[in-house]
Amino acid sequence: MTGMKKPAFFLWREKDDIIQGSEEMNLKEILTVMIEKNASDLHLVVGNQPCFVINGKLSYYDDRLLTRNDLKAFLDEVIDDDERKQKFLTQKELDFAYELEGKARFRVNAYFQRNSIAFAVRMVPLNIRNLEALHLPEELKEFTTKRSGLVLVIGPAKTGKSTTVAAMVNRINETLPLHIVTIEDPIEYVYKPKKSVISQREVKEDTHSFAAALRHIVRQSPGVIVVDGVKDKDSVKMILEAAETGHLVFCTLQTWNAIQSVNKLLDFFSDSEKKQVRIQISHTLKAIISQRLLRRKDGNGFACACEVLKVNQTIRNLIREDEQGQMLSVMEDLRREGMITLSDRFLALYKQGIVDLAEIEEFLPDKKGNLDTFLLQ
Fold first, then answer.
1. Most buried residue, 139, 162, 248, 261, by most Cβ within 10 Å?
2. Tell me, which fold does domain 139-375 have in CATH?
3. CA–CA separation, 265 vs 223, rounded Å?
4. 3-class SS of residue 23
5. Start-end of CATH 3.40.50.300 domains in the chain
6. Helices (DSSP H) in the chain: which residue ranges?
7. Lowest-pLDDT choice from 126-130, 194-198, 362-366
8. pTM over 0.90
9. 10-124 has which fold?
10. pLDDT averaged over the chain?
């Protein structure tokens, strides 16, 4: 092999599948391959190969290790605003969105590690898939027809909350003449106005904070409000007030279950305030949608297990009396009213041959005992 010309660097390496590319590292080429391979995430760290996450597993872009100069060049490529770039260099953290020539959008977190620039990139498709294409429960359509109230979409990070909210909001966009206002950090899915008028506000770009945006939102005459998480007490107060005064509010939370979600909202308040807030939540809350993503048995991506809690009079009473710990048993008793538990969805996905038992077992707290119970259903 001595004396042979050194080959160009590879654009993709997975087992024996090799696509030859340019000698210089190019971010647009990397992102293009990310789209082609339908990778969910991309990690760019000095001293490592560019690394994709595909179906939950790591795959590498090529054999070359990233250098500090590569990462600096990538920063110049995605941030052409000198003021914004200086803000990142000063604060060492920056969340923003980046679009590649009408092919896809990316949610980017730029950060520093070992005194060098690094990136974590999440792909966001340009086209918003509908509820049917996402195989989400029919019950979710009901919440898009509400004229007021609060709908929480919850789950750990990377469980598709934003995708579900986008599908529901786009259904409203296709069917109702309303003003929809979103508050996001950063903006992920970009809506194309159909029957609705849509204002998308990015924190730090279009407004100083979530609280500042919510403080003035009622004057913008919204029919629907979409909030990407809650960060402080003022935001929770204004979300509940908006839901009480004739607005439909969708809000995402990084919580594990319905009980934890209600408690998280309450935790922003002092003990003396909690009784009144519980009453507000019981009046305004319409549903809690909880999600988990499970690896498909065929290796083709993920399946979404979606729990649906519909707030009826029984649930309202439990919240008001601070007995939300009983909500799961109520859901199990009232399946005929459209309640769906995660166990229901796990069982359905298993029986349909979409996921295997090992994947489901990961999500059961008392694995052995709960798995035995699960299989007897």
1. 248
2. Rossmann fold (3.40.50)
3. 23
4. coil
5. 139-375
6. 27-36, 68-78, 82-91, 139-143, 161-175, 210-216, 233-244, 258-267, 271-284, 313-320, 327-333, 342-351, 357-361, 367-375
7. 362-366
8. no
9. Beta-Lactamase (3.30.450)
10. 89
